[in-house]
User: Which sequence fits this backbone?
C-alpha cells in the first residue's frame, strides 16, 4: 500500500474542461469518477441503456487496470439512469460484469446528463489493499 496519489486520465473532453481525473488512487482505494459510454467524442450504444452501461463499466474497469486491478477488486458501484424503464437493462449489464464479485451498489434515477443522449453514467470504487 502506498500513500502517494496516482491519477489516470481517459481523454474525455470533460476531464480537461472540468479539471478532473477518470480515476484517483490513494492508500488502499481507487475511485473512478462518473463514466459514460463516450469514448472521445463518440457515444457508444446510443439509445440502448444496456449497451451504454456495459461500455461505461468496461471503461471504468479499464481505469482501475492502470493501477493493476481488475473486476475482483471492485467493492462499490453506482449507476445513474435517466429513465426508470431502463433499470432492468442496466441491472442485467451490471450482473453480467459483477455477479461473481457482488460489490455494494446504488442505482439512482436522475433528471438528465450533460449530453441528452446519455442514458447511463456509472462510478466504481476498488480496493487495492492486502
Assistant:
Amino acid at each position: 500500500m502506498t500513500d502517494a496519489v496516482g491519477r489516470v486520465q481517459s481523454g474525455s473532453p470533460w476531464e480537461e474542461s472540468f479539471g478532473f481525473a477518470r480515476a484517483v488512487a490513494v492508500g488502499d482505494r481507487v475511485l473512478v469518477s462518473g463514466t459514460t459510454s463516450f469514448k472521445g467524442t463518440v457515444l457508444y450504444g446510443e439509445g440502448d441503456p444496456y449497451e451504454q452501461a456495459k461500455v461505461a463499466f468496461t471503461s471504468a474497469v479499464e481505469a482501475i487496470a492502470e493501477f493493476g486491478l481488475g473486476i475482483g477488486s471492485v467493492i462499490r458501484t453506482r449507476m445513474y439512469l435517466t429513465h426508470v424503464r431502463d433499470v432492468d437493462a442496466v441491472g442485467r449489464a451490471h450482473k453480467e460484469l459483477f455477479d461473481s464479485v457482488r460489490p455494494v451498489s446504488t442505482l439512482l434515477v436522475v433528471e438528465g446528463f450533460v449530453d441528452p443522449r446519455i442514458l447511463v453514467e456509472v462510478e466504481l470504487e476498488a480496493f487495492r489493499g492486502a
